[in-house]
Amino acid sequence: MKYNILICDDEKDIVNALKIYLSQEDYILHTAYNGRQALDVIERENIDIILLDIMMPEMDGLETITKLREHYNLPVILLTAKSEDTDKILGLNLGADDYITKPFNAMEVIARVRSQLRRYKQLGGAPSASPSTYQIGNIMLDNSEKTVTVDGKAVNLTPTEYAILFLLMKNPNKVFSPEEIYVAVRGELPYGAEGTIAVHVRHIREKIEINPAEPRFLKAVWGQGYKLEG
Amino acid sequence: MKFTKLIQNKPIMILTFFVGLSLGGANFYQRQNLSNLGYYRNSFSEIYQSRIKNLCSADISDIQERMENLRDNGYFDESTSEQLRNQLAEGVLSDYTADKTNFFFTVHDMNDNVLLSSYTDDYQYSAVEIYQNLKTETVETDLTEEEYQTFQLPENANILEEYEYMDNVSFEDDNSSGEDFSSQQIDEEYNAPMEEVQQIDEEYNAPMEEVLNEENLMMHHITYEIPVSDDGSYYVTGYVRSEFYASDKYSNLYSTVQKNYKNRYIYVGFAILGGLLTLFSGLVLLARAGYRDEFSTVKTGFTEKIPTDVFSVLILCALAVHIPLIDDFVYMPRTLQFMVGVDGIGALILWYAHSVIVRIRAKELFSNTFCFRALRGIYHLTRRTAKAVPSMWKTLVPIGIFDLLNLFGVYCIAENAEFGLFILILLYFLAHAMIFGILYNLHILEKGGQNMADGILDKIPEKWLFGRFLKHARNLNSISEGMNKAVTDKLKSEMFRTELIANVSHDIKTPLTSIINYTDLLSKMNFEDKQASEYIDVLGRQSARLRKLTEDVLEASKATTGTATVHKEKIDFRVLIEQIEGEFIEKFNINHLTLVSSVPEHPLYIMADGRQLWRVLDNLFNNVCKYAMSGTRVYLNVTESENEITFMLRNISATELNLSAEELMERFVRGDRSRNTEGSGLGLSIAQSLTALQGGVMELQIDGDLFKAIIRLPQMNAEPLSQPTQQPTVSIAKGCPA
């Protein structure tokens, strides 16, 4: 099935570049150059996901989201030069599903688009039936099988990494200090712990996050510990 | 020329002054003294006669007294035994031996029989023996001829002169018949040749009277009558030897008189000389007073710092101390004391005259007086008060009315009017109310002022203030308003600046996105030309750098202007270190760096924004990865003291650090001046600003190739650390190449 993607940015060059990248992935591409055009396209076409710039003439991205969310449930990824925390928070609160700052890495954009589509179309947000299964975002952990999948793809974790992730998945949004994590997973740690908890956490992040430098889920709370944001 | 130089030499002139003054003073005093003694009116003989008479009279009266004693003890009685008489006589004579005094005496009765005499030619003879010899009318001498000769007076022109002089002078008292000596006689005797010794010998054997007449050189002869009984008296005759054997008051007197007489005009001469010297040197000194080398500029000295009138009084006091020295002789030898006194007075007068002349020349004789200064001070004070009065009349008039009412009340009470008491009570309450009001107003103003000083720019409530307090409060309020406005404006402009930078960076980011993406697209294409892909690599690298730079500029701007919001929470610095180590351990391994860390075992709680602090450490660790020499160790130390936690990161720089720590912390400065490596040069500046936002201090130290980054953070409940005063001087607006 081919998904309809709307790319909305007032900068034609960026729209074109995104088109080039996304066309490699077998999507049907639509373009708009301001919010109003985007809303028109959404009304006309059956759009599955929208990449939306914030600073645009006529109608900006934030206004577009607000209008959009009145009728539509489709995933919205904000793609903007505004990199302030406040901008991100505002955008996400208004109903955006993801937030990518310019200048972006095209590969990351593709990965995030894919992730959002999978979540929207395939996983559908249905709660897991099994009590031994935990899901946060696109990460799924099945404790009975001791497997972790991200966007349905299996991820290879070491026993220590698995133990840490399991602890965090069981208690989403709770901050664990490295010491607490250490105590909880001690049995799993290799003797003479070459890597500290921080190293393990980083390794997990590299395996489950699209952009490990800006993690969506496994976040470091600097000076306190780590948490899994869900 | 030499003379001119000499008189220009101040010390020498001062010395001359004092020498002249001392000389003149001493000699003047001597001359005055001698004048009083008659040296300038009378001849030597007159002076000598008058003065020796006094001494002689004293001795004779002593003898007289002793003779009266002897008489009372029965010396002249027939019944008295020889032994007792000898004893009595010895008592008198022992005090008048020739070795003690140059005075001698004889006592004889009305028939001129000598009864007692202290005369002796050989002062070794005891007086008693002589007496006995005289009694038996024989004088035995055991002197050898030679000794006798020696004993004879040496020939002396002086003495001869004296004889001559004495010849012409009558030494006798009026009531005594003295013996006359002819100069011829004396001459003969003294010039007697050796052959005449025998003759002299004979003369010594002569009766006492004769000996006295011829042999002894009587200089003074006073006869006193001592009444013994009704029928008879005895006479005492006193003599002074012409030749002094003993050193006594007579010899002293003689030499003194002689000296003085000889020198009597020398004193005058020296006095005049001294006076001239004094006058000359004094005038020279005064003429040059106030001038140094040339006669153009007047320089005041130390003395001129003392006000003229105070100085005058001081000089007068000093003079008052000195004047008794030349008036009341009790302190020292008279001449010396007079000299000291004259010197002192002269010095004071010279000093005063000198100072006065200098003051006149410096035109400050009157301006530099205490009185003048005091008057001027009073004048200025009065003028200032007079100027201030218009603004003070509001205060003075109520006080005046209050005082008048008060007086009126007291008067009423004195007149026994109840009304007066009422007035006074009313005034009492009024005064208290006023004082309370004023104190309250003052308190309000004080509090407001303190608030302003502390930076709290609240308005001072004007509700209960009155009069000039209200005016003052309004002034303060307008000041605080102005300050408030300034602060707000500053804040606004800073916000505006940050916003501007944010907008600019957004605007840069959009084209940058295209550049990065199309470069990426290009890199995926196949080019025939191998160089094309090389160029694309450069594009990719440089666009990535531009991206980093854009982000850093924005962040630096936020961090330094303080517009970055700080969410402080309780964090464990130890955990942060562990996390950052975890992030970087592999990057370190790739760069062949070994991290050696030493962190306390227990939690180190601080209040800070974890993300910002992480950014600080991230920058420092990134720096280490970029600039540390491969294969070296990197040392991380965390220590804690009572109030702060100190983090220190040390590494060996791969390249030579040819910059100072301060320069490194400035924006757009990088460890290598050539800027070959990636990075914006803002990392350390951002780190420093962010550390400051956490209430901490970041400093860099460079010791050769050893690079040290030190971060000090306040412990959880401690005060923020004081920031070093030196701030980065390059501002974003100026330093940003865009």
Task: Give a quick precis of the structure.
With 230 residues, chain A is α/β, with parallel strands linked by helices. Chain A is 40% helix and 20% strand.
Question: What descriptive keywords fit this protein?
Answer:
heterodimer; A: 230 residues; alpha/beta; Rossmann fold; Arc Repressor Mutant, subunit A; four-stranded antiparallel β-sheet; 8 helices; B: 738 residues; alpha+beta; Heat Shock Protein 90; five-stranded mixed β-sheet; elongated
What does this structure look like?
The complex is a heterodimer of chains A (230) and B (738). Chain A folds into two domains: 4-123, Response regulator (Rossmann fold, 3-Layer(aba) Sandwich), CATH 3.40.50; 133-228, Winged helix-like DNA-binding domain superfamily/Winged helix DNA-binding domain (Arc Repressor Mutant, subunit A, Orthogonal Bundle). In chain A, a hairpin with a 3-residue loop joins strand 10 (218-221) and strand 11 (225-228). Chain A has a five-stranded parallel sheet with strand order 2-1-3-4-5, sandwiched between helices. Chain A has a four-stranded antiparallel sheet with strand order 6-7-8-9, with helices on one face. Chain A is built from eight helices and eleven strands. Chain A has helices spanning 12-23, 35-44, 61-71, 85-93, 106-123, 159-170, 178-185, 197-208, and strands spanning 4-8, 28-32, 49-52, 76-80, 98-101, 133-136, 139-142, 147-150, 153-155, 218-221, 225-228. The model of chain A has no long low-confidence stretch (mean pLDDT 84). With 738 residues, chain B is α+β, with helices and mostly antiparallel strands. Among the domains of chain B are: 44-246, no CATH class; 373-451; 566-735, Histidine kinase-like ATPase, C-terminal domain (Heat Shock Protein 90). Chain B has helices at 2-8, 10-37, 44-72, 82-93, 127-135, 145-151, 157-167, 183-190, 197-205, 208-215, 249-287, 308-322, 334-361, 370-414, 418-453, 467-523, 530-561, 573-590, 610-627, 661-665, 683-693, 732-735; strands at 103-109, 114-117, 222-227, 233-240, 569-572, 594-598, 605-608, 633-640, 644-652, 697-703, 706-714. The two termini of chain B are 82 Å apart. In chain B, 26% of the residues are buried. The chains are: A alpha/beta (230), B alpha+beta (738). The A-B interface holds A 11, 13-14, 17-18, 20-21, 55, 81-84, 102-104, 106, 177-179, 195-202, 220-225 and B 502, 505-507, 509-518, 520-521, 543, 547, 551, 554, 569, 571-573, 575-576, 578-583, 585-586, 606, 608, 610-611, 613-614.
